[in-house]
Amino acid sequence: MSVLVWFAIILFILMVVIGGQKGARSFIALFFNFVILIISILFMADPNIDPIIVTLIATTILSCVNLFYINEINIKTKTAFISTMATIIALLLFIIFMTESAMIQGFSEEQIEEIKGFSVYLGVDFVKIAASVIIMSTIGAITDVAISISSPMREIYRHNPDLSRRSLYQSGVSIGKDILGTSTNTLFFAFFGGYMALLIWFMDLNYSFGEIVNSKIFSAEMVTILAAGIGVALVIPITSWVTAYVLIKSGVKEEVEE
Amino acid sequence: MRKNSVKQFMTKKRIALYILTFLLIISSFWFVNHNHEFYERSIAEIVEVETVQSEEVTDPHGNEDQLVTQRLEGVIQNGEDQGAVIQLDNEYAASQAYDHEYSVGHELFVSVDSTNESEQLTGSILDVKRDHYTLMIAWVFIIILLLVGQRQGFYSVVSLAINAVIIAFALDFYIQTANISLLIISGVSIVLFTVISLLLVNGNNEKTYAAIAATLLGTLFLFAVTSFVMWGTAGEGLRYEEMQFVTRAPEMVFMAGVLIGALGAIMDVAITMSSSLFNLYEKNSNISNKALRKSGMDIGKDIMGTMTNILFFVYISGSIPMIILYLKNSAALGFTLNMNLTLELARALAGGIGIVVTIPIGVYLTIFFINRKRARV
Q: What is the phi/psi pair of residue B70, to 5°?
């Protein structure tokens, strides 16, 4: 059996043993994510469809799976969903601007060996694809931070129903501050694990500092890491605000229901 | 009275910090806009663009694109030819998969053909000067982190910077000393990363010690599982030949990438477990080990899915352009995925194993540290 099958079996067993039913759901969600991602790539490859629209639809479905399927549909996951989408739209505008101006789309001259023999006149807008790639790589981290803030805020509000919207917002931001460091760290190492081969390559081929900093592939990776970090930071005040607003609005009604 | 003066001191310090940051931003931008002299390659700023030709092309796979030829005029910014006007030709496709559309104001690295001295200079385009964009997004990142996280934001930026420096040193050391295995260097770096990041983000206390121990054990377990599987299957199904930018033994580079890539997520899980369990203990110091274990496992269940997703999306998304290239060149879907995704999927799944296994490790280690504290009290 191949390495992939083994890894998948080990991960599945661990998730079920440690996480029970929820662990099994997390594993199935991973599989759904994979399928959704592949389907959206197929749509992106169609020159008549705008990749940005595909990305927006894909991220909507993906965050639904990761929030509503793994957890349940409730006020915590709903506010986390709204905040994730708001953050992604804000981030998207900035990322489109960055990819267009820094010209980091498509393939770099370091990859010329690999794309040799392929036609690159594909009619697909690679600038927009580059923006989509950045958004797609941050969606996991953004939903993670959103749910990590909205869920304890709900608990705080349940224990202190007299809190004002302002102090509820502030408690959300203070939870966010505590997870900001570890979340940026998670992203940083995740990206770095993928880029290690590239950095060794740069050093082995004696690239000068100036060449590295200005190369397309290095700039693209820096922009991706930093844009992901910006997303993780931005989602903190957005989630705190949305959750505080929704909790105060619906607070009374829900008390009655319970 | 005294409180007031402390407050005043704090605001003064804060204002000084703001001014310092502002000056740093201004001076760094001034530098990247005036650093042309530091580059050996000639840099030309585009002052005139003329579209010479534009034609429809259809490639052998039926993809339609627009091929455009531009004639550019640029002014050389550095070196012997500074101030001279250079003429450049550029061809790009509207999809810009490999080429670029240039416009007035862009700065390009160029090579100058030293032929006709009296006439206008000609040359070819090497690359785009991108340093100011990287700088710009770095500042946006730092400012947003400081605005949102304030003190914690500052510590996060510092810890990221320190980690980046450690990485640079470790890789440099690896390149210099060819005999030491990449895995040993990664192992030492992993210990350094873990200790420094967790101490910086979380402070010098028992919570941090528990998290450090859990991170290192979790990573060790991941290493054991990964090497066992790779050894048992002899790496079957992993397309090392499709690994990009490989100058060294690909198995080693892959393995080190798996461990370091999962490290951040493992640290995240470890610190979440230890701080929430210590929190419960501090609120009620009589809480039983069994209750602690149950709460810890419940928290773990909540985070395992989203944490695994983070790694999944980071790894898989990067392959999107290459997959599109394959598909548009009439490659079959199965072949395309097999060629482009096996390594990324393996990385994501292995990282998930590290994340999930750190949950019980974190719970038991934290309970051990809590009991040690109990015995002392």
A: -115, 145
Please report the pLDDT score of residue A254 as a whole number: 52
Q: Are the C-beta atoms of A207 and B120 separated by less than 8 Å?
A: no
Q: Is residue A16 part of a domain?
A: no
Range of the domain at A191: 73-257
**Cα-Cα-Cα-Cα dihedral sign, residues A49, A51, A57, A61:** positive
Given an 8 Å threshold on Cβ–Cβ distance, is B353 in contact with A37?
Answer: no
Q: Is A29 within a domain?
A: no
Which chain B residues are closer than 8 Å to A205 by Cβ?
A: 247
| Residue of chain A with shortest Cα separation from B63 | A122
CB contact under 8 Å between A19 and B300, yes or no, is yes
Amino acid B206 reads E
Residue B247: pLDDT over 80: no
User: Which of A11, A68, A142, A148 is the best substitution to test chain B (most B C-beta atoms within 10 A)?
Assistant: A11
Name the minimum distance, in Å, from the CA of A100 to any CA of chain B.
10
Q: If we measure between CA atoms, which residue out of A214, A221, A37, A197 comes closest to residue A130?
A: A221
In this complex, do B100 and A103 lie within 8 Å of one another by their Cβ atoms? yes
User: pTM for the complete prediction?
Assistant: 0.91
Using CA coordinates, name the residue in chain A closest to B350. A7
A154 token code pair: 């709900």
Give the residue extent of every domain in chain B.
2-34, 37-129, 181-376
Beta bridge partners of B111: B124
Residue pLDDT, tens place only, B6-63? 566 667 888 888 899 899 999 999 998 888 888 988 999 999 999 998 999 998 888 8
Q: Residue B302: its chain A contacts at CB < 8 A? A: 22, 71, 151
- Total domains in chain A come to 1
Q: Which of B335, B318, B65, B245 lies closest to A120 in space, CA to CA? A: B65
Chain B residue closest in CA terms to A174: B149
In-domain check, residue A34: no
Residue in A38, A134, A193 closest to B262 by CB: A193
Contacts of B105 (CB under 8 A, 6+ apart): B45, B46
Inter-chain touch B63–A122, beta carbons under 8 Å: yes
Instruction: Report yes or no on A233 lying in a domain.
Output: yes
d(CA B18, CA B24): 10
